[in-house]
Every structure is written in C-alpha cells, then in structure tokens.
C-alpha cells in the first residue's frame, strides 16, 4: 500500500500560527521535504519535532520528485513544507502534486498559513472573486502579463519583494492607470505588520517614503475608478 503525501503549511511569520494538526503530522511522517534544512530545522526544533529533513527546492525538485514518488509507493508517509506558507503556492510543491496525481498517490493538504488571504481580506477590495497571479515574470513576458492583467475586472493578488516593489507599482500605474485602487500588505502576522490602502499613486508615495522590508502582498482592482 502506498504512503500518503502531506502538504503542510508553516507560519509566514508568527510561530503561533502553526496548527496542532500540522505539528502532529510532521511528528508522524517518515521524513520531511523542505526548501532550506537550516530554516526548517529551527522550526522543527521549536516544536520538538525529530524527523529527517531532505532538501526539496526550485533547483532540485525535478530530480528529487522521482525518488519521493518511489518512497511513497513503497509505503512511506512524507510531508513537504516550505520556508513559510503553503507548499505549491508560489513555492515548490506543484511538480510533486502533479506527480502524485499521475501516480494515484493519496495527497492531503492541511489548511493553514498563507499570505494572500489575510492581505486580501483587509484590503477592503472586492473579494467574492479574485485572481491570484503570484510573482510577475522577472523580465521576459512581464509587460505582456501586465497588459493582460490590466484588462481583468476581478481583484488581483500579487506577490512582490521589497527591492522590486517601487518598480512594480510604477508599472501598474503605467498599465492600469493612476486611479487604480490598491492595497499593500507587508510583514503579515509579524510584529511590524502593516497595510496601506489607496490609489496606486498614494501607494507609490508611501513606498518611496520609507524602506519597506519583508515579503509584500499587493492587491489591485482596476474596476473601481
């Protein structure tokens, strides 16, 4: 009988966001896949979890997936975690989920921490329908993607890094228009969590007035001008 593959969310900031079920699952599996063994090692030590950690990240997931599927077929139960949030959401995990589906492996994703939902809820923008676009392309295809998103009437959720946020905001202004409504959330669940809402021009002014730190969730709606 094949084992079970667990996708286990880990806190995006506050360790108290780790669920009891997540802790128990990690204690019960045969081993744990993670992006960075050092980062995950700190998390496991905090919750007194003693299980083998194996690297599984964007640079080795193609090679590692086959071995994981073999172990699952041999009856081992395996969990995958990332440095923060839910595996597979702008983090490693999709290829493994696809392979698990292709090989009829039982897969369970635990509910838990993710950055996009808290940012969407507190944005004050319509959330009955939304489009999660993750990170924009770095270079090739970036303008094409922005043009495509500019036509979208649903609320859009983007991830961005602090050192690229000013460029991204300026590009949204260029492609979406300066009256576009938006919300910027950073350091979600951490001590200095902060959300700024307003027009894209107001967010540009806010972003340039200070040095933003931490991963950023940008919520944009092009239909409320």
UniProtKB/TrEMBL annotation:
Residues 5-203 form the Tetrapyrrole methylase domain. It comes from the Bacteria. GO terms for biological process: methylation. Keywords: Cytoplasm, Methyltransferase, rRNA processing, S-adenosyl-L-methionine, Transferase. It is found in: Cytoplasm. It is an enzyme of class 2 (transferase). SUPFAM superfamilies: Tetrapyrrole methylase (SSF53790). InterPro entries: 4pyrrol_Mease, 4pyrrol_Methylase_sf, 4pyrrole_Mease_sub1, 4pyrrole_Mease_sub2, rRNA_ssu_MeTfrase_I. It catalyses: cytidine(1402) in 16S rRNA + S-adenosyl-L-methionine = 2'-O-methylcytidine(1402) in 16S rRNA + S-adenosyl-L-homocysteine + H(+). Catalyzes the 2'-O-methylation of the ribose of cytidine 1402 (C1402) in 16S rRNA. PANTHER family: RIBOSOMAL RNA SMALL SUBUNIT METHYLTRANSFERASE I. Belongs to the methyltransferase superfamily. RsmI family. This is Ribosomal RNA small subunit methyltransferase I. It comes from Chryseobacterium terrae. The gene is rsmI.
